[in-house]
Design brief:
single chain; alpha+beta; five-stranded antiparallel beta sheet; 3 helices; about 15% helix; elongated
Length: about 190
Amino acid sequence: LGAPPGGQFLVRDTGAKSVSTVQAATVFMEDHAAAFGATSASTRFQVGPVRQHGGSDFVRLNQYYEDLPVFGGQAVVQLADATAVQNVLSDIMRDTRALDDGSLSLTPTLSGGEALVAAINALATESPVHLARDYSGSGTPELVVLRPSIFGLPGATLLTWKLEVVASAQEMEHYVVLVDAHSGTIALQYS
């Protein structure tokens, strides 16, 4: 959503004496979430990094469903000041029906440890040089919602464990693997 050159979208006056661009971006997204397709009452946005460039502030808002991050779900709000939104870029989860109606449980069937084993076994099966013993987890497994359409991919919304996996200390291959928290299948991986 972009304002025409020289134009802007006004942010609702909250009555506060002083409003930062972060607060203004948050208020704007709360007020206009439905225009971006975020219609579920369980969807919210949490402030991420803020950057400044060319006289504008760029406020990243990460999407959450209830208390779970939506992997890759975010909006970037460009503001000239705390009252003027110039542009909003968003890649967010819009279809939340499976979560809203409970057909997708937000309680994982697999533990983070079980998901790590599934990720390691899948990576070892694909690798022409590594065995499962060559891989290990790095960091703490994180439960996230994956909506493949955010990345232009087909598929249903999934509850996943986001894992970081490394292979052999000498080569330091690093993978991010999202494992379906109910079935144990690999939903997404990249290095």
